[in-house]
Amino acid sequence: MSDEVNPFESLQEQIEDAAEYLEYSTDVLERLKHPERVLETTLSVEMDDGSIEVFKGFRSQFNGDRGPYKGGIRYHPQVSRDEVKALSGWMVYKCAAVNIPYGGGKGGIKVDPRNYSADEMERLTRSFAKELRPIIGEDRDIPAPDVNTGQREMNWIKDTYETLENTTEPGVITGKAIESGGSEGRTEATGRSVMLTTREAFDYLGRDIEEATVAVQGYGNAGSVAARLIDELGASVVAVSDSSGAVYNGDGLDAEAVKDHKRETGSVTGYEGADEEFGNRDLLTMDVDLLVPAALENAIDADIAEDVRADIIVEAANGPLTPAADDVMAERDVYVFPDILANAGGVTVSYFEWVQNRQRFYWDEERVNDELERVITNAFRDLVDAYESTDAETFRTAMYVVAIERVVDAAEEAGIWP
Ligand code: GLU
Question: Helix (H, G, I), strand (E, B), or coil: what is residue 326?
Answer without folding.
Answer: helix
